[in-house]
Structures are given as structure tokens and as C-alpha cells.
Amino acid sequence: KIYGDMYLDDPGSDFLDRLVPDPGPEQAGQAVFTLGAAIHHALCAGTGATQFFNAVAELARGAGRISIEPVWDRAGLLGPRDPPRVEGGVVREYLGLEKGLNRTVVGEAVIECFHVKDEWVDRFKKMLVQGSGSSYTTFEALGAFIWRNKQINCYVIIPYFSFNGPYQLHAGLKPSRVPGDEMVKFAYSINIRKLVKPPLPTGYWGNGCVPMYAQVSAKELMEQPIWKTAQLIKQSKGNARD
Fold first, then answer.
1. Any domain includes 226
2. Alpha carbon of 40 to those of 46, 183, 206: distances in Å?
3. 63 within some domain
4. Separation between Cα atoms, residue 71 and residue 190, nearest integer Å
5. CB proximity list for 158: less than 8 A, separation 6 or greater
6. β-bridge mates for residue 216, sequence order
7. Which PANTHER family does the record cross-reference, listed alphabetically (predicted)?
8. What is the C-alpha separation between 160 and 155, in angstroms, rounded?
9. Dihedrals φ, ψ of 197, to 5°?
10. 139 burial level (CB within 10 Å; 0-12, 13-18, 19+)
């Protein structure tokens, strides 16, 4: 259990030694290894992390220099405007807690993974088009479906979508009893790399995502046509701007 003791908090299984190899230099050129990493958005987003690992891989393969020159300059690119200027109340409303918010501790979240077939998504998106006359992305469509159904089933669902191959929805679930007149929010992250003026440079590897949300009363969410919920999510994207 040498490797397990070195690298893991709970080296309780024999197979952990095989999951955490410690190859010498002679082994590195003869095998392919998969690297998993957890990185906080305070440092960088997925795009930036990918650029960093690609750069390390290029150097490991013997490149004299990396193909995309890294850019940090976070303070200059995304720092406060001078003079400071606040437009709208999006951030304040998102971070604020409504009076009378129930602070009851609900316990540990449960993680589930749902596999959603492409044909199911396509059929649902066509139904939304028939109801509204507008088209919607997969994120907007599934987001509306999940958001409303979490009210029906009295669960809070935090969505994450992976669009490579079969659609996967990773959801954190916890019990939540919400009164009909309470405002409920659908929160997500949106990439602002091309929204800021000027756009962030290609080599910028810091965090390029900001929190965004759509909100409506729990009663409206339950009773309005589901295409209106998808439209609400679609419109909320417009709140991300320079």
C-alpha cells in the first residue's frame, strides 16, 4: 500500500495501488496515463485548465515552447472599471437572501447520473418549438424540464451537462419544500470570454465564467407552459454582458 499511503486519505483497498502509479522516467514513454484534477474556479475555468494541461503535455513531448502563449493579467482584463460603474442589480439579487428564507439544514446531497438519449432531447425540443415558435438549445430545454420537475418532486437540482456523446445530467439532490409565492432560481455558469470588450485573448487561462440565473415564482414555474420556462433561461443569458 505504498502508493495508497502516499497519495490517498483512505488507502483501504488493494486496487488503489494500481490506480495511483508512480512511473519512473523510463516508463513514461511507454504508456499512456489518465490525469484527473479538481480545480477551483477562483483559479481558472475548464478552458483554462485544458490549455494548461495541453501546454504541459507539449513540453513533456519535447517541445521547445508551447503553441499558445499563456496570458494571465487578470487584474487588467477583468478588473473593476475605472471609474467604478455598477449597472443593474443582477449580482446583488443573485447573492441576496430573501426575507424569511428557510435556513433548515437538509442533510447531505445525493449525487445521481441520468443518461438522456439524443432522440428524447430532439423530440422535446420540437415540442417547445411547436408551443412557442422559437428554437432552444439543449441546455435551455433540459434546464426548463429539470427546473420544473424539481418543483413537482420537491427537490433542488443543480444541473451540469456534458454534450460529448450521450447526454449526461449530473444532479445534486436535496429535499426542498417551496411555497408557491416564493421566488425560485435556476443558477448556472456562463462563459464570458467572447462577451467582454475586447474579448479575452486566446491564451487567457484564468477563470472566464460568471454565475447567472433565471428566476420566477414557484407557482408560475408549475403552471406556465414549459416553453416559457425555457424562454426565461434563454433570456437570462442576455444578462451576461461587458
1. yes
2. 10, 29, 11
3. no
4. 20
5. 171, 172, 187
6. 184
7. ACYL TRANSFERASE 4, N-HYDROXYCINNAMOYL_BENZOYLTRANSFERASE, PUTATIVE-RELATED
8. 16
9. -120, 115
10. middle
User: How far apart, in whole angstroms, are the C-alpha atoms of residue 20 and residue 4?
Assistant: 7
Residue at 199 is within a domain: yes
15 alpha carbon, distance to own chain's centre = 31
Residue-wise pLDDT tens digits, 100-116: 555 556 667 777 777 88
Q: Say how far apart CA 83 and CA 5 lie, in whole Å.
A: 53
Domain for residue 218, yes or no? yes
Tell me the CA distances in angstroms from 105 to 18, 111, 137, 178, 194, one per residue in order: 39, 18, 35, 14, 39
- The closest alpha carbon to 61, from 21, 35, 32, belongs to 32
**pTM score over 0.90:** no
The CATH number of residue 191's host domain is 3.30.559.10
The span from the CA of 122 to the CA of 214, in Å, is: 23
C-alpha cell at 114: 441520468
Closest listed residue to residue 188, CA positions, set 117, 223, 237, 134: 237
- Percentage of residues of the chain with pLDDT beyond 90: 27
